[in-house]
Design a protein that fits this description.
- The protein has helices spanning about 20-35, 60-70, and strands at about 1-5, 45-50, 75-80, 90-95.
- The protein is of the alpha+beta class.
- α1 runs parallel beside α2.
Amino acid sequence: MYASGCVGLLQETGKLAPDFEGQVKATLSNLDAALAAAGARPQDVVKTTCYLSKRENFAEFNTLYASFFGNHRPARTTVTVILNPGVLFELDAVAVQSDRQ
């Protein structure tokens, strides 16, 4: 499964979460929902690319990211970029679902 351009839209409103933490949490929650819809789970993610609007947010991002993935550590690239207005975080992910019985 490929997920690209994932941003922190709140499922309840369809609007961006107002702050960095909210956007990261909403993005990861939306990724979790997309994975579940495809029959996958966070442990099936093998690679992410994470885009931060500010380098200063890296430590907070890293904590939130680790909390979402737990002991699972997919390969990750994290870069600071100029994102669309209001977007503070964006994520691309690749998941490979293993055969489960």
